[in-house]
Amino acid sequence: MAKTALDKDLDKVVRLETATHDLSRSLAGPGIALVFLFGVLIWASVSVTQGPLSTLVIVAAVIAAYMALNVGANDVANNMGPAVGSKALTMGGALVIAAICEAAGALLAGGDVVNTISRDLLRPEAAMMDAPRFIMVMMSAFLASALWVNLATVVGAPVSTTHSVVGGVIGAGVAAAGFGIVAWPMLTAIVASWVISPALGGFFAAGLLALIRHTITTQADRISAARVWVPALVALMIGVFTMYMALKGFSRVWRPGFVTVLALGIAGGAIGWAVAVPWVRRRSEGMENRNKHIATLFRLPLIFATALLSFAHGANDVANAVGPLAAIVAAAESGSSQTGSVVLPIWVLAIGALGIALGLALFGPRLIRTVGEKITRMNEIRAFCVAISAATTVLIASALGLPVSSTHIAVGAVFGVGFLREFYSNQGLVRPQVSANAFMVDPRTLNATAEDALANDQKRERRRLVRRQHALGIGAAWVITVPASALLAALLFFVLTSLIRF
Questions:
Q1: Contact 79, 69 (CB under 8 A)
Q2: What is the largest CA-CA distance in the chain?
Q3: CA separation for the pair 219, 339 (Å, rounded)
Q4: 286 torsion bin: left (phi>0), alpha (psi -120 to 50), beta (else)
Q5: Torsion over CA: 209, 212, 215, 220 (sign)
Q6: pLDDT of residue 281
Q7: pTM of this prediction?
Q8: What does the DSSP assignment read for 3-29?
Q9: pLDDT at 21
Q10: Domain ranges of the chain
């Protein structure tokens, strides 16, 4: 029956309401972000000590908040993606866990890497740079890196915010005082860490997956093997986390020695093992002896490993959000570009912590799905290997005060897992299934069919395990980020210095 004019009008109203609802949802995130930036403006106006450079510090605080939003939107996806892709966590659960742990890591343990970003990359004393000019350098670097990461988030590219900040600082510094201002030995060490960190992430993840495969998933009695090895893996995870918290998490109030840290790690691992043994036994009772069911035993450990990784990321990458701001505050208070050791006001760290958490909640889901679903297929075991290996690498880097890229580490771990499984497949560990009826046909036809099935199966397996086109795109983004943010920072420095005179 044909629609009446009233039905058509009602359909138009419904479509208009749907479009309005979708538009309001798309504008809610930017609106909340603007409210946050305005709140930071008010907060900084109250927190900053009045002085000749206080206005620049307040503006820099707003830029820092903008950068923190972008760090949360882009970088945190690397931590949450595997857990969401394996269906161990829902998107909402991942956002809540990440927001809490990222903020806690930034506030409790975000210190050493901030000094590296804010103080060690440039040598302003070599160019006799005064405080106002040094502040302009840092503001230009800050704004350039934030704009670049924002653009990458819009197009769905998981770039490294560490790359962006370092590139911005170098570009603005060279524009202000030439190549002599850059501390090239420090830059060399950082660049080396960018190469080494994804390799380490991939190596640790592949090694852990190989261990689980050898000890659990290829055993005849997988349940008995899991009752032995899953608690051991949980003990390893808890021990690493305990050692890190003792070494870094409470460094502002307590600095234990190496022996104490090691003892606490062993004790934490023992407690984790003691708790995990009865838990694994209860969960495995009546379970089918299949890898799909064994993988569910890793779900809760994966959630804890993801939380650990988020804490480590907050400690390490808060430098990307507030490192230049810390240097700006120190230069404004001292009146000199030679700030020495940067003391972090709590309001500076709070901007980074809150901004990262809010950016994740508002803009993170898209990139979480990209990392968790589009690079390789995940289950709980593979995601656990990625999370715990990436967490260990980031924790070590943060303890050493080295601003490695968590993007490189996490993506390297993802590809390490995928390529290891692909290696097993190429070694003939994945075989096509031939039915009994196949033996009723001509042997030559059977051989051809089996060969075709094997070839097609291997092709499908390669596509399913590692999507190489994403590796090329991610690699291109990594290469472009440093020069792009450096050039943008240099341009912004020239623009800002032409508009603001001191």
A1: no
A2: 92
A3: 59
A4: left
A5: negative
A6: 93
A7: 0.74
A8: PPHHHHHHHHHHHHHHHHHHHHHHHHH
A9: 44
A10: 29-221+289-429+466-499
